[in-house]
Amino acid sequence: MKVVETKKVQSKTINTTERISGSEAIIKCLLAEGVDILYGYPGGAIMPVYDELYKYQDQIHHVLTRHEQGATHAAQGYARISGKVGVAIATSGPGATNLVTGIADAQIDSTPMVSITGQVGSHLLGSDAFQETDIVGISTPVTKWNCQITKASQIPEVLAKAFYIAKSGRPGPVLVDITKDAQFEEFDFSYKKCTGIRSYKPVPEADETDLKAAAELINNAKKPMVVWGQGVILSKAEDQFKAVIEKAGIPSAWTILGASAIPTSHPLNIGMVGMHGNYAPNVLTNQCDVLIAIGMRFDDRVTGNLESYAKQAKIIHFEIDPAEVDKNVKTDVAVLGDAKASLEALLPLLNTNSHVEWHQKFKNLYKIEYEKVIKDDLHPTKERLTMGEVLKEINIQTKGEAAIVSDVGQHQMIACRYADFKTTKSNITSGGLGTMGFALPAAIGAKMAAPEREVVMIAGDGGYQMTIQELGTIFQQKVPVKIVVLNNEFLGMVRQWQQLFFDKRYASTEMTNPDFVAIAKGYHIDAKKVTERKDLKDAVKEMIACEGPYFLEVCVEKEGNVFPMIPTGASVSDIRLE
Amino acid sequence: MSTEIKQFTVSIYTENNIGLLNRISAIFQRRHINIESINSSVSEIENVSKWTIVVKLSEDQMKKIQGQIEKQVEVIKAYYHTEEETIYQESCLFKIKSDLLFDERQIQNIIKESNARIVTVNKEFFVLEKSGRTQEIELLYRELSVFGIMQFTRSGRIAVTKDKMKISTMLQAFQH
What we know:
A: 578 residues, Rossmann fold, 6-stranded parallel sheet, 37% helix, B: alpha+beta, Alpha-Beta Plaits, 2 domains, 4-stranded antiparallel sheet, 9 strands, 34% helix
């Protein structure tokens, strides 16, 4: 089955001047920025742009989502798997406000995204006109930059800036709000890509002294440990990163967004840190002598209680955003700059090392975690299916080559813990904001950006229903994503907390669910439900073999818990195994 | 780093763009920090705005907020200074009944001693202007409030630093 046919447009600078409308200029700017797909929803104040999209449909593919939130998450999925800027488009008022969750998600997860919103005519601004809302004001705290355009002549420069800001430095979302009269107005169009803004320095200059200090600490370390984040992926530094940890022989753990930068099976990959991360890297965070943080931001879900986080260790922080340095954890050496360049410069300064005894500590603790948690997750002896064994089966059937797009909750933690990643950019999930409903639309964007890749979406029964309407988009666009819902008839993560910290008072976490298979079939998507272990293997096999989209519901243990777990306010080394 | 709450004067050099006030004030609002005073004006460099914001917080918080402010695309540079590091002025206006000027002799002495300036006088009221440091204005307010003040208003702080601002050379490059 074909996914989408869009002509690849070469990004270019348009020097010739031509007299066109603002809305046509918007399309020409998008084409010049190499945009081939955009996700959106039409409405009154953006209609002139949609009229142009109709004319340019052979060059730029507009995907009609079923809700504007879906458009932003699809744009995020597109950006996360491709490294390109995702584009979402919506009308004014409710169209614009519906984008906000996705924009906030992109902000906290550093995803390059440009949102374009229509706005009422400039003469109506501030008059409480129909579908007028101050989206620039509303989106300010959750955008890297935003701007309102009231004159067509501003369009090329502002959009050029928007794309430059979204993708440069630490990436993030940008919103451009364009009044309807500016869309209609004709002007002399020419386009020049933005290459710099005087008040904006996307990448701080690396300091050689810091780099040398970092190398010295690493070379003298007896028990070094790396924690890497998405910065490694965003700066395309996977090779440099691998070379550094291999040369220095450093056990390396990942944050949820850093997952897949190196393969899960890499001998130096010691697993995930944080609240539901692996036992060894969490415990040994408080025993290492040098902690090397690369492209990560010491989120509270990673550090647990800061008062007892790696206090014994010297901290080195490789970071592109100066505001992140010393924000949560005081560093001994901060190496500012792009991870790729910094790691490249670090490599020749490092001594070859192996730290065999130190590695053994991780292996010993892994054995404990395996016996207490992993064995029961992956090879359960109880009757009901576990989320972990579903992941194991997906790993087997996809040979670990799938991109896993997960939603938010228990299944997300299980997906990240047990997915067998082989290639980078394979873990697409809402990390910082924890947006339920992210996965289904994000999977659409991911599959459309990388049609050659197998994309498996995994959601819980709760999050799935938050954006379930995007099945319509999948059906209409014929996007062959594989949709897996791990149904425990609960909002599982909240229920787990209620069990552990609220004496099992399950307030509003039990779900009475619809017939998910019937719903999928209503959208003409092949669908199956599995309740027993004996049917799991064949069902996953059938799903992966299916050329089109496929929906698989797996009914799992109702009151299963995700362990290990660092309770809120506890130290990383007080991680619980049961 | 100190967690003691102190008063800081934040100086921010920015582009002169719509919406930046919202963006900067949101950084304080998000952290539940009250802005004591805020002033935005032209700076020594053409087309570059200078903001002077007075806030009370710990130096630890202040440093992080400085980073968040500088991170904004349209912010060129942000600094923070303690009271001792700046030379600052605030300005205020008092509107007072004119009768008092003649009935209460002491008012004339207060005006004289405080270096306040009478801006205008008419039959009903006179307007007094005073520029100075916070305590000077507070003192004058206390002294005059005994007699009754019809209206009072006070400006945001404006400040320059005692030390050289490193930004000047960087900003000058913008002019070319």
